[in-house]
Amino acid sequence: MKPDSRDADAGEPLGEINVTPLVDVVLVLLVIFLIAAPLMTHAIRVDLPKAAAAPHDTHAATVIVTVDSHGAVYVDGRPTAPPDVEAVLARHVARDPRTSVSLHADRNEPFGTVAAVIASIGRARVAHVAIATADGESGTAH
């Protein structure tokens, strides 16, 4: 049996570093930072000024624009030719400048049609646009 080379060099110090204490220290520091970080956001006290804000009007008109899987576009449930979307939305904005749009686009529809509708919404100067997505579990739009 061949003797181990470590046995032959018994008088020399080992060249290995024991990393267990280093890992312990790093984990303790990590825990300290995880506990201390959320507390730091409350460390600076600021006395914020009070301001009277205008009441938020929740009665602004919301127009629903739908693009189905065949590329057909509907504005508030009425079929609309894609080139006419801008004019229809511009009329809504002229009546109420706070008009917002909720865009419902079928996920199987190519992006080109949806991008054209988004561009029409922008050209109509709609202030607020929401893009509806489906809830992952139930598949309902929100």
UniProtKB/TrEMBL annotation:
Transmembrane feature ranges: 20-40
UniProt KW keywords: Cell inner membrane, Cell membrane, Membrane, Protein transport, Transmembrane, Transmembrane helix, Transport
Listed GO MF terms: transmembrane transporter activity
Protein's membrane topology: Single-pass type II membrane protein
Pfam family, one: ExbD
GO biological process: one example: protein transport
Stored InterPro entries: ExbD (IPR003400)
GO cellular component: plasma membrane
Compartments where located: Cell inner membrane; Cell membrane
Family note: Belongs to the ExbD/TolR family.
Assembly with partners or alone: The accessory proteins ExbB and ExbD seem to form a complex with TonB.
Known role: Involved in the TonB-dependent energy-dependent transport of various receptor-bound substrates.
PANTHER family (alphabetical): BIOPOLYMER TRANSPORT PROTEIN EXBD, EXBD MEMBRANE COMPONENT OF PMF-DRIVEN MACROMOLECULE IMPORT SYSTEM
Designated name of the protein: Biopolymer transporter ExbD
Originating species: Burkholderia anthina
